[in-house]
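Thread amino acids onto this structure.
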């Protein structure tokens, strides 16, 4: 009977499109059970719970890993190569889930993969973010242009439009990408880095990067 109560509570959680349970929610679900820690350990071994990080659990493996990123470490949004691949801007599949955050850089690894969080300035954090849905669950992801800005901002030694175009070729960026100039302008100002300023000059001059 007690086990059925747990499953019912977890099912209610899922119906709300939140395949997540944190330690506080688990305490509520387990109620007056004396050995809560032992029960959680048994549920982890049986696969009823999947540990995402300390104190945070998934209730199903049938969820896109992107949906967990912001809950694992936030505030954050998916960006960099992960977002570029998601939008089809680069041809390679990316297996590490990279996100931008306002907090310190951090990494987590669980059965869904490796989650890497890189710090970005607060001035650019809210620029060019989109809401996407996978597995019926919403998450935040950088637009193609914002992901491009976040990624190129990490490139050292970039001082010219030629450097940007060379880098774009090495990245094999989609030549049909039409970057959003307003997003690049906002990121150029917010990042204050030469690489993003060169990207802005390239797009202002050519209307794109590869053209």
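Threaded sequence (211 positions):
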């Amino acid at each position: 009977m007690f086990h059925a109560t747990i499953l019912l509570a977890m099912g209610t959680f899922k119906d709300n499109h939140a395949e997540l349970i944190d330690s506080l929610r688990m305490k509520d679900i387990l109620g007056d059970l004396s050995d809560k820690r032992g029960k959680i350990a048994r549920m982890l071994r049986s696969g009823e719970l999947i540990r995402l990080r300390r104190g945070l659990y998934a209730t199903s493996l049938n969820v896109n890993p992107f949906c967990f990123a912001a809950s694992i470490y936030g505030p954050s949004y998916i960006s960099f190569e992960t977002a570029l691949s998601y939008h089809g801007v680069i041809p390679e599949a990316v297996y590490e889930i990279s996100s931008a955050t306002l907090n310190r850089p951090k990494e987590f690894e669980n059965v869904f993969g490796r989650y890497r969080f890189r710090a970005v300035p607060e001035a650019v954090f809210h620029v060019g973010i989109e809401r996407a849905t996978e597995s019926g669950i919403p998450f935040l992801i950088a637009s193609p242009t914002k992901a491009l800005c976040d990624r190129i901002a990490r490139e050292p030694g970039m001082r010219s439009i030629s450097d940007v175009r060379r880098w774009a070729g090495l990245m094999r960026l989609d030549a049909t990408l039409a970057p959003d100039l307003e997003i690049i302008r906002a990121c150029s100002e917010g990042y204050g880095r030469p690489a993003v300023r060169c990207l802005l000059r390239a797009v202002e001059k050519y209307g794109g990067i590869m053209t």
